[in-house]
Write the C-alpha cells for this entry.
Amino acid sequence: MIYKFVGGGEVPVPLDMALVRSVLEPHDVGDPQFTEGENGALAFWIRASDGSEAEIFADEHCLAVERPHAGAVFGIVAELTSRLGAVVLDPSTAEVVCRAEEYAHLPAGMRDDAIVIEMTGEALQAALTGPRRP
C-alpha cells in the first residue's frame, strides 16, 4: 500500500493521479478501457523489462500493489513512490518503508517501525521481502 503523509498528519493526503498515470501507463499491459473506473479509480497491470509484473489499483488516497513479482517491477513501484513523495506500508507487518525525505512527514506513531531506505527497486524489494527485524 502506498500513501502520502504531510507534516506528521494522521490522515493520508490525496495523490497526484496525473503523476500516477504518467509513471504507470508506459508499463501498462492491461486493457486500456479498464484503466479508469466509473468512480475515477485507476487500475494498471504493469510489466517491467525483465517480465516481472504487478497489478496496481489507485484511488485518491492510496495505491494498492498486488502480486508483485520479484524483479524490476519493484523499480517501477520505487520510482512512483519517490516521485509522489509517498511511503510504502506493508499490510502484512504494518512496517513503513520510506526515504529519509518522507520520514519526517510520517505520523509519530509510524516513525518507530519505519525502515528508511534509498528508494530503489532493489532496496524496496529487500525491505519488503527480506528477513524481518526482531
Observations:
- The mean pLDDT is 92.
- The chain is about 30% helix and 20% strand.
- Residues 2-128 form one domain.
